[in-house]
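Hi D.,

Good news: the full-assembly prediction came through. Inputs first.
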Amino acid sequence: MSSPSDKPLSPAAQAARLPRHQRGTYWLLALVLAMVVATSVALWWTLRQAQSLAQPFQKSDLWYVSSVHSELGRVALLARKVKALEAPEEELRERLEVLYSTLDMAGASQRIGARLRQDLAQPALDLEELGRHVKRWSSRMASAPPERAGLSDDIIAHTDALLQSTRKAVVAVHLFSSQDTDLVRQELHDHFMLLSAVLGGLLIGTALLIRKLLQEARAAQALSQQLAQANRQLEMRVASRTREIDENRALLGFILDSSPSDVALADVESGFVHFINNQMVERLGLQWPPMKLFLPELLHDPATSRQLMDALEKYGQVDGMEALIGTRNPRWSSLSARLIEVDGRLAHLLWGFDISTHKQLESQLRELATRDSLTGLLNRRAFLERGTALLDHCRRHAKPCTVLMIDIDHFKRINDRYGHQTGDDSLRACATSIAGALREADILGRLGGEEFAALLPHSSTESAHLVAERIRDAISQLQILSIASEPLRITVSIGMAEMAHRDAGIETILAWADQALYRAKATGRNKVLAYERSTPSPDTTETLP
Amino acid sequence: MTPCFRAGLPCAAFALFVVLSSLWLPLPSHASLVCQPSGARPVLKLQRPTQPALACDLQALESLPARDIVTTLPQALGIAGKSQWRGVSLRQLVERMGGNERHQIELTALNDYAVRIPWSDLLQYDPVLAYRRNHQPIGVRDKGPLILIYPFDQHPQLQKQDYVNRTIWQVNVLSVR
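Then the structure:
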């Protein structure tokens, strides 16, 4: 009864135990089958026995023989009384009839069992002899008086011997029937022993079954306990993992939230926002994180948006792309994007870094690089750049284009006399005046010192002359005060040169205009002169160093 | 009693008839009304409580209301075949003798075999003290002239040694004490 299922088994031990366990089950099954067969046989036999016991059966052989003996005794006694005339003959007749019926002549074979007749030959013969006598006496009794006269004597003569043999028969039958009963008893005893064996087997089988069931139940209980424990451990581990993951996620969220970058992760198709940090929410000008976000709609400029999407589709990633993001108040941002998979679906991961300040600085720098800091006009380099572009434009469209070269007369003298401050003021005033006289499309630059240049597209020398004159007039009208509040007058000399069709380069035209300016200076200043193509060579060689 | 469970109205009518006829019948306690002696040889001695014994002959018994039982007897009795037994209802006979459930009923045979019949048997099975088998008188040789017959075929619970033992033949004394 040492059950190994008391303590939890390792899986290996259980695997090793399985065959034995199964063998036990087969043995038990065989036992149960045997028990079923034995019980069926026992049941069949018992039912058959019960059927035979449904009717009462009486072993009345002894009663029969002793009744015959006692009736014979009564007949003998009565015969003596009849002979002595103490009893009526009628009574003897009745007694004889009773004896006759007791002997049961008609159905003798049924009254005396076949075995009795076989095993007890002598008593059977004696009874048959008695039967013959009784038959004879009865028929004599039924016949006429002369016939039955000596009947009593006849009866008395035979009864003593008959009584003795009947008495012996009683003893023999008694012995026989007691033996017979004992045989029946033995048979019944054997049968009950057999039945007991079957029932005992049944009991043992049932006990084994119960033991087996108990074992199984205990094993099942142990197993379920193990399972519950494993389950608890698993749950604890899952909980701790979940907590770790949650903590990690919270940490990651915190890091991303406090990052200066804008971060958003959104499903490509549905636009579901997996993650968005506060920075990005603010950048988009929203109060709350949006439920849906589509990357293409995030960019201000549709063309840039398309470019970004194309690159993403092609390479799966985009880095450092500068674009305006946000729709209401777009800001420059350096964007990095990735096409990644989240929960089996494509998602856009967008990192943005705000570069508005950079852009501003950049434009400021650009401004600084192109403008003259004193007057705010284009510097020489910028003027040449834009001038070249404008010239090309005019040449393409076969339009005239004229350059004005403007120089303040005796500026060195102003500087020397009133100081640099006043000189600067004068330069600024001049610049403003010149600009005021020009059209929107014209470009104006300070080429250096007190020298300005203007490029007038779509203008011939004639129309430009008017403009130059307006400029000269406007500057001569200027009311400039020195630091010492002395009024001073400024005049300018202006040289003009028109772009010829074949000519190329702003520098050349500027040189021509410079030649005209030189002539204007040389011929008295405060005047406007145009470059004259007829006499270019000697002038040029003279003026240009 | 048993047939009365089946038929409602006819049964009630029968019961009424029995009651009315019992009113018309002579009073039971009167000795001479139990059996009228006709001078023939008596076959049954009636021993009654507090009254002298009576001797009945077959004729007197046959003049009493008869009851028929058709049945086969258990094999142990040695009388084979289904037979019609006619006789006096033992219960009626005992009641006519003034006996009731407080008395002991005992039957004795010619060979001094004697059995006691419980009152409950009379109520339940109403056995008959038969004097004719298949309309023929029964001789002493054939276990006559009187034999107590239970309706074995009608009541399967009678298949017991008890009732085999109580089926007494060659009855010559009925004692009610």
